[in-house]
Structures are given as C-alpha cells and as structure tokens.
TrEMBL record:
<dbReference type="InterPro" id="IPR027823">
    <property type="entry name" value="DUF4468"/>
</dbReference>
<feature type="domain" description="DUF4468">
    <location>
        <begin position="35"/>
        <end position="120"/>
    </location>
</feature>
<keyword id="KW-0732">Signal</keyword>
<dbReference type="Pfam" id="PF14730">
    <property type="entry name" value="DUF4468"/>
</dbReference>
<feature type="signal peptide">
    <location>
        <begin position="1"/>
        <end position="20"/>
    </location>
</feature>
<protein>
    <submittedName>
        <fullName>DUF4468 domain-containing protein</fullName>
    </submittedName>
</protein>
Amino acid sequence: MKRIVIVALIMALKSASVFAQSDTLLIGENQKFIYYQVVSQPDLPADTLYNRGLLFLQKAYGKDRLKFFKADKAKLTLNATGGVLVSKRSMIAMHEDASVSFNLVMELKDSRYRYWFTDFIVSPYERDRYANYVPVAGKNYPLEKGSTKLNEQDYKGYLTMVTANCRDVGTMLKSYMQFKAAPQKDKKKNAVVPKEW
C-alpha cells in the first residue's frame, strides 16, 4: 500500500512540474522569449471566435495595457501590443523600475484558437529631478538580454512579473472566448408624458 501511495505521489509531482513548465516563458525558434497557449473551444465556429477575440482586444483593457492594432479577417488573425510595469522595492516603498512592452498574436480556427506573447522589450526607468520615475530615452533592450544588464534577482523578478501578466491577460481572453450572450428581451419603452412632471 505504501508503494502505491509513493508512486502516486511521484507521478502527481511530475505532472505538476510539467504543467508548471508549460505555463512559463520559453525560448522560441528565433531565440526570443515566447508565452504560447492553444485553447480548445468545442462547437464554436472560427468567425464567432474571431468576433469575441476582437471584442476582447477592443474592450478588455485600457490602451496603456493592451492596444489593438491589426486584424485580418481572411486569415483569422488578430494583433495587439501592450505593456506591463515592473516594480522594485526600495528602502521606503515600491517604485517603477521598468516597463516591458510586448506583441500579442491570436490565430483562430473552428473549435480552437491559439495566442502568444513575444518581442518583449524592456524600457528602464530612472528618477528625474522631481523625484518621479520616468523612462530612460534610448536605453531599450530585449528581455533576453536582461541577464547581462540586470542582476540575477532583478532579472528573475522581471521574468516572474511578465509571466504573471501574460497569464492574467490569457485568463481574461479565455473568459471573453467562453462568453455567451444572454437572449435580449424586448423592452417596453416608457412613454414620456410632457404634462406630468
């Protein structure tokens, strides 16, 4: 009995580690970080998924976090750009350390879609003379080069925050893709009687 429990525990830990590895930033074919997901959406045609994806890109977030910029109805693809602020703790409080911009690509087919985040660009921040943290002009670099430009702890923090942002946006996207509109009821319009006030 103990052996069965131990084997089951080892199998559970291995499957958990495989799942955790698939939900992280990976290095893609072009040697850039990528966050990639394929989602099955049974019984939904591609045009419905396309319309829901378009609604997500236009309505889910503000333009500073996710900005829709290109749609191709023939190829069923949607593109957007976005960004996330990376904060760092100083002695007194948290402050912005950098912003990381990214590209989001969605491809849709019948009963499934895929999306990926890529082209992560770091824009470091510095304190200006008014004690505000502002982007440093001309110092942008790809996130892949962060291991040479940042210390190890900061670099891991950047990767963690970017991965968490990708996961959050992906979760919001999935909720938009599963959305079922409620049937609309005919509303009676109340007549305005100008004599009564």
